[in-house]
Design goal:
Blueprint lengths: L1 H16 L13 H11 L1 E2 L8 H7 L4 E4 L7 H18 L3 E7 H11 L8 H4 L14 H15 L9 E6 L3 H15 L1 H10 L15 H8 L6 H15 L5 H25 L2 H23 L2 E4 L2 H4 L7 H4 L4 H8 L5 E16 L6 E6 L7 H6 L5 E5 L4 H6 L3 E5 L10 H5 E5 H4 L2 E8 L7
Parallel strand pairs: 2-5, 2-6, 3-4, 3-5, 6-11
Antiparallel strand pairs: 1-8, 6-7, 8-11, 9-10
Helix pairs in contact: 8-9, 8-12, 10-12, 11-12, 12-13, 13-16
């Protein structure tokens, strides 16, 4: 429902206010000339070890590299992000991978790759993701990379872990509550009992079959009292308690308390204020999560959907007033500190649901529509390619105009694709580089 409201509001505003994406005043080259330029500039990806040499050079000394995806359900995006992340860790000293995933469930994955949880394999560890849309991380492609990260830490010559794994999102309230209570039970049993009372407003939504966002609906209806004050007070108490506890357990518990407070505000805002305000609240939360993890690690890789990690100022999102973490981090950090890599596809298959909370299945991903960025990248004739935009003045000039761009989240409605999955953007200002995989296939979920 929130996604539908957001799309309706966006469509209405576009009818009133388009164009809002500020683009270059110089017209782009004609279509054949532009295709020829892109063909000359694009680097073919051939699964060779040196595929991303030029991209890593372009990334330079960036502290935060965001790797996007045009869908949440395409195997090749996970595989290419894994290839890049592997090299960023090995060659540029990145020490954390951050996912567009709930904080608390992802702590179990971090425990797995650090071998603290006693789990036998990645498939078992990924059972931490029990709620919709669990296939986004609970899939064979990501499990294979988790096993790699675990092996990397086990084989570290320094004898200490090379990489850590985190979630940056506010989803996963029941798991976050359990994390906070478990931590406090070891530190201060009375505080643990008080935390259970503070968080009991979420108890009716803890079962897997119940969506925690219904807390916001019930507060708006007056059938559930708000626990905003209690949750905020508990976060402040956790900040004071963990200020003297710099270990990983204290940090994880504090971040769980922060996620609970963020989720409470997000769900309440979604139903009592609106979709736009809740979207921006979440983007600010995600950006702050990354800032906190950047302070802790110095260099981090982020896996997130193009809609979040691309710069919203270069898209229809600006018309709506939506922010994105790519925009916020570009604004907050030095220009060369952030590097945004978008990923696109032309056609194939995708794993997605037809509505929030409904079963996922493999769907045919329609060929991208004429005039879209994905169609243009398809026309250069390479099965897989990368374009380095930021430091190429000619590419930046020619790609700084508005075209439609496709984004598929956890739901995909091919019969109404144009209205639900396309928006305008300037490719040159949205991303620093773009990886295009012409034909992609659906993720393979784990049981």
């Amino acid at each position: 429902m929130p996604q539908r409201l957001r799309r309706l509001l966006l469509a209405t505003l576009l009818l009133i206010a388009w164009p809002a994406v500020v683009v270059s005043e110089e017209p782009p080259a004609s279509e054949p000339a532009l295709v020829a330029l892109l063909r000359a500039k694009a680097q073919a990806l051939t699964n060779d070890a040196g595929d991303y040499d030029r991209l890593l050079t372009a990334i330079g000394d960036a502290q935060l590299v965001m790797l996007g995806e045009a869908t949440h359900g395409s195997a090749e995006f996970y595989e290419q992000r894994a290839r890049l992340t592997r090299r960023l860790i090995a060659e540029k000293g990145f020490s954390a991978l951050v996912l567009e995933a709930g904080w608390a469930p992802t702590t179990q994955l971090n425990a797995f790759i650090h071998d603290r949880a006693g789990r036998a394999d990645a498939t078992t560890a990924l059972r931490a993701f029990r709620r919709f849309p669990r296939w986004v991380w609970r899939n064979r492609q990501f499990a294979a990379f988790l096993d790699e990260l675990k092996a990397l830490n086990e084989n570290s010559a320094a004898g200490s872990p090379v990489v850590s794994l985190y979630g940056m999102d506010l989803y996963g309230v029941p798991e976050a509550v359990a994390e906070v209570v478990h931590y406090l039970a070891r530190r201060d049993p009375r505080a643990a009992a008080a935390a259970r009372r503070d968080y009991r407003c979420f108890a009716p939504y803890s079962r897997i079959a119940v969506d925690p966002q219904l807390y916001g609906r019930d507060v708006a209806r007056g059938t559930m009292p708000s626990c905003e004050k209690r949750v905020r007070a508990r976060l402040q108490q956790m900040q004071e308690l963990t200020a003297q506890d710099a270990d990983a357990a204290g940090f994880a518990a504090l971040m769980s308390a922060r996620a609970i407070a963020g989720a409470e505000a997000y769900y309440r805002t979604l139903y009592m204020v609106g979709a736009l305000e809740s979207w921006n609240l979440r983007e600010r939360f995600l950006a702050e999560s990354l800032r906190l993890l950047l302070e802790r690690h110095g260099k981090i890789v982020v896996w997130a959907h193009n809609t979040h990690q691309g710069d919203a100022r270069a898209t229809d999102q600006a018309t709506l007033g939506e922010l994105s973490i790519g925009q916020l981090l570009r604004e907050q950090l030095a220009p060369k500190s952030v590097y945004l890599v978008g990923m696109t596809t032309f056609r194939g298959s995708v794993r997605a649901a037809s509505g929030w909370g409904t079963p996922d299945r493999v769907k045919r991903l329609l060929p991208a529509i004429d005039g879209s960025w994905s169609r243009l990248l398809h026309d250069i004739g390479l099965p897989a390619s990368v374009l380095l935009i930021r430091d190429d003045a000619e590419l930046t000039r020619q790609l700084d105009h508005s075209r439609l761009d496709r984004g598929v989240g956890v739901t995909y409605l091919p019969a109404a694709e144009r209205d639900n999955h396309y928006a305008h953007s300037s490719l040159a200002r949205r991303f620093d580089a773009v990886i295009h995989i012409d034909t992609t296939s659906a993720l393979q979920p784990l049981p």
